[in-house]
Amino acid sequence: MKFKAADIANLLNGEVKGNPEAEIWTLSKIEEGAKGSISFLANPKYEEYIYTTGSTVVIVNKSFEPSQPINTNLIVVEDAYSAFTVLLNHYNTIKNNKTGIEEFARISETATLGDDVYVGSFSYIASNVKLGNNVKIYPNTTIGENVVIGDNTIIYSGTQVYEGCEIGKDCIIHANVVVGSDGFGFAPNPDGTFAKIPQIGNVVIEDNVEIGSGSTIDRATMGSTYIRKGAKLDNQIQIAHNVEIGENTVIASQTGVAGSTKVGRNCMIGGQVGIVGHIKIGDFVQIQAQSGVNSDVKDAQQMYGSPAINAIDFKKSYVYFRKFPEIVKKLDQLEKENKQK
């Protein structure tokens, strides 16, 4: 699909400097620009590329003053980075604007589908499922019985949503996510074996949540596992049964949260963090990568280490950790001198 520079400028509330009829049909980095592409310049470190880029159009800030002749067309805006983000979102909307039921998709007669829904081949929509308007279900996806999915949500290929789970509006669930698998619940028997505890709850994912590829969110033993609105989960994350992830909390990849732990709102959790079960993490908490959290954390704390402690305390302690061999050597020397007296 082709667009003219003038069309893009109107979308971004910008002004064209150059040919408003110039046509573009793809996006690129400024250093990799080619004919028909549009790029942006926001960081002065990349200014050198605007004089050599092959991009047909480049989005720039109003404050930009070229130091050499420019051979491309410009769209001048208040904030080039924000404007390019708007353009990316617009492009993504157009790219994902699929509708209709593809061949080999299987949809139960009792399922309810909203307007402009897309269901890809080899997907299965079970009985009593409710899909909102503009929902996109990509191929090889299974939506279990009694699942509810809100408007404008996208579920990519290979995802499995177990029965009874709820997904809100404007969510993005990436490939091979599992929503609603059984929580890890087993009771020890006298003979040393383990008896499975039925997991009869569900998962509730609220509006505007994004979940990365290969992540798993277990259903609750009873009640619900909650991913609150605005939360963003990276790839390969494990959320156990009865966990609650608060609003607008972001979690990086390979993190695991054990059962019944409550994570507050607006937290930032780094990659490969391990969080034990049955604890409470407050609001606005930051946990640095590879930390292990084994007790409650109050609001607005920065945590690091395993077991995790306040990040400032950890950095102070680390000074002594590094000097520990030297300290031991000095202690040994003092002990030797003391024996000689």
From TrEMBL:
Tell me where in this chain the UDP-3-O-[3-hydroxymyristoyl] glucosamine N-acyltransferase non-repeat region domain is found: 23-89
Provide the active-site residues from the annotation.
H241
Query: Where along the sequence do coiled-coil regions lie?
Result: none
What GO biological process terms does the UniProt entry carry, in alphabetical order? lipid A biosynthetic process
Q: Name the EC number(s).
A: 2.3.1.191
| Keyword Lipid biosynthesis attributed | yes
Q: Per UniProt, which keywords does this protein have?
A: Acyltransferase, Lipid A biosynthesis, Lipid biosynthesis, Lipid metabolism, Repeat, Transferase
Pathway of action = Bacterial outer membrane biogenesis; LPS lipid A biosynthesis
**Pfam family of the protein (one):** Hexapep_2
Q: Which reaction does it catalyse?
A: a UDP-3-O-[(3R)-3-hydroxyacyl]-alpha-D-glucosamine + a (3R)-hydroxyacyl-[ACP] = a UDP-2-N,3-O-bis[(3R)-3-hydroxyacyl]-alpha-D-glucosamine + holo-[ACP] + H(+)
What terms describe the molecular function in GO for this protein? N-acyltransferase activity; UDP-3-O-[(3R)-3-hydroxyacyl]-glucosamine N-acyltransferase activity
Cellular component, GO annotation: membrane
- What does the subunit section of this Swiss-Prot or TrEMBL entry state? Homotrimer.
Family, according to the entry, reads as follows: Belongs to the transferase hexapeptide repeat family. LpxD subfamily.
The record's section on HAMAP family has: LpxD
Q: Any idea what job this protein has?
A: Catalyzes the N-acylation of UDP-3-O-acylglucosamine using 3-hydroxyacyl-ACP as the acyl donor. Is involved in the biosynthesis of lipid A, a phosphorylated glycolipid that anchors the lipopolysaccharide to the outer membrane of the cell.
Q: What is this protein called?
A: UDP-3-O-acylglucosamine N-acyltransferase
List the source organism: Faecalibacter macacae
